[in-house]
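Box 3.1 A note on notation
Throughout this textbook, protein chains are presented in two layers. The first layer is the amino acid sequence; the second is a token string describing backbone geometry. Keep the layers aligned when reading.
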Amino acid sequence: MPRYSETNQMGFVAEACYPRWLDLARTALLREHGLEYHQFEAMGYRLPVLEFGLTLHRPALYDEPIEIFTSLRKRPTFLIRLEYEIRRDDVLLTTGFTHQAFVNRQFTLVRPPAAFIAKLDLLFPKPPQSGSAERGFTPREQR
């Protein structure tokens, strides 16, 4: 629920609050899949946000319950794009996205850690191999 301190004079949640909410949603998504952000950091990985965007469809209001839905539609490689929906019941309040990069401590672009790749293999399985040279696009192949 939005806190009073997160609202502006109109009683709407201030725009500056949304990036923090997206960060909480990202952390929750990783946790739901058995991946803790602090584990990434302990292994020397970072996931800085390179870009984010929001579309405010309707205002979020003080003390009204909201839900944030986070989705990963394409299999990431070095970069990851997450999409967000913020809802109050069935009412769409906000849509958004973040682009992040997997980097090491020197901020060099790197492949994600093996534990993350293993989780991706469950979410984006390889298509069955056939004798044909042509294959359809699957989430694993989309870049």
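The beta strands are 49-56, 67-71, 79-88, 91-101. The CA atoms of residues 51 and 99 lie 5 Å apart.
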